[in-house]
């Protein structure tokens, strides 16, 4: 862990203030754009090695955490993409073992993925995905290759360089292409992982550990600012469910909360979101 402060990737300055008086000290908020992020944090080389070798330790975790637990969400997100773009060339950033891309019909989609984990990348390759190894900033995508769709599902909050990554996504996206970004819901993430509800469920005040690989907590406003700087815009915001972990009762509660979040999203016309996850449908601004 370095003791050096981390600059806001959007403002490119250290405008950090403590985020909420009762939150852990390593959670900071930029006074310029409102982005919440961890500082200090591990060196970039350590983080890169973690995702390459330790984030996905074995095939069981790959199938469970990044496959079966998320199956319902992945099916919905694939169906959403099919409505927006029925065919073309797709790039899934953080494709893991290719579970999401498996939900897209073969033959009409040319499937590409970026993945730092060797184990996961090999599994995705076996499923017919052309895999570019490493993080997005390291991926050797051939010059001139563009994509009709790019998906970034639950991975932007793990990136060390989200502003640069969004700029790279814009460069790779065709003018009429679509970008889907899946992220934890801002309000749900705070309430579930900090304070009384966290204590009732986990018997601790906070789940925001400084060792967590989650480096950013995005709100719709902070993400919108970063997208605008990258030359993109949010077209639609949709609720999504959390992974289906735990007992049958917990999974039923998860589905009920998702239904509630979906209803509130519709009634408020997208202005009120309490869903565990949020899907941002984005396009190039020009």
- CATH topology-level name: Rossmann fold
Q: In terms of structural class, how would the helical and strand content be classed?
A: alpha/beta
Give the end-to-end Cα distance, rounded to a whole number of Å: 40 Å
* DSSP helical segment count: 9
Assign the CATH architecture: 3-Layer(aba) Sandwich
Overall 3D form: globular
Highest-level CATH class: Alpha Beta
Helix content: 25-40%
Largest sheet: 7 strands, mixed
Radius of gyration: 18 Å
Q: Which oligomeric state applies?
A: single chain
Name the CATH superfamily assignment: Vaccinia Virus protein VP39
Order of helices and strands: EEEHHHEEHEEHEHHEHEHE
In what order do the strands lie side by side in the largest sheet?
6-5-4-7-8-11-10
State mean pLDDT (0 to 100 scale): 89
What does this structure look like?
The structure is a single chain. This protein is an alpha/beta fold and 286 residues long. It has one domain (16-284): Vaccinia Virus protein VP39 (Rossmann fold). Helix content is 34%, strand content 23%. The protein contains nine helices and eleven strands. It has a seven-stranded mixed β-sheet with strand order 6-5-4-7-8-11-10, sandwiched between helices. Strands 1-2-3-9 form a four-stranded antiparallel β-sheet, with no helix packed on it. The longest helix is centred in the last third of the chain and has 20 residues, at 248-267. The model has no long low-confidence stretch (mean pLDDT 89).
């Amino acid at each position: 862990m370095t003791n050096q402060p981390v600059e806001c990737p959007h403002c490119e300055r250290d405008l950090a203030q403590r985020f909420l008086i009762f939150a852990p000290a390593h959670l900071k908020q930029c006074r310029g754009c409102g982005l919440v992020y961890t500082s200090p944090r591990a060196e970039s080389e350590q983080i890169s090695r973690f995702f390459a070798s330790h984030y996905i330790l074995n095939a069981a975790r790959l199938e469970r955490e990044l496959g079966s637990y998320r199956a319902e969400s992945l099916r919905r997100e694939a169906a959403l993409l099919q409505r927006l773009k029925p065919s073309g060339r797709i790039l899934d950033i953080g494709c893991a073992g290719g579970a999401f891309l498996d939900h897209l019909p073969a033959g009409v989609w040319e499937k590409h993925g970026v993945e730092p984990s060797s184990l996961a990348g090999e599994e995705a390759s076996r499923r017919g995905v052309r895999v570019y190894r490493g993080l997005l900033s390291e991926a050797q995508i051939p010059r001139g290759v563009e994509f009709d769709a790019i998906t970034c599902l639950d991975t932007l909050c793990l990136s060390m360089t989200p502003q640069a990554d969004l700029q790279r996504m814009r460069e790779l996206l065709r003018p009429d292409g679509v970008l889907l970004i899946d992220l934890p819901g801002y309000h749900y993430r705070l309430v579930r992982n900090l304070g009384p509800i966290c204590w009732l469920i986990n018997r601790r005040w906070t789940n925001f550990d400084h060792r967590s690989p989650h480096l950013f907590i995005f709100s719709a406003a902070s993400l919108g600012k970063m997208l605008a700087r990258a030359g993109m815009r949010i077209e639609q915001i949709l609720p999504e469910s959390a992974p289906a972990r735990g007992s049958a009762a917990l999974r039923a509660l998860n589905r009920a909360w998702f239904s509630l979040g979906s209803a509130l999203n519709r009634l408020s016309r997208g202005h009120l979101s309490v869903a565990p996850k949020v899907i941002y449908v984005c396009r190039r601004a020009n």
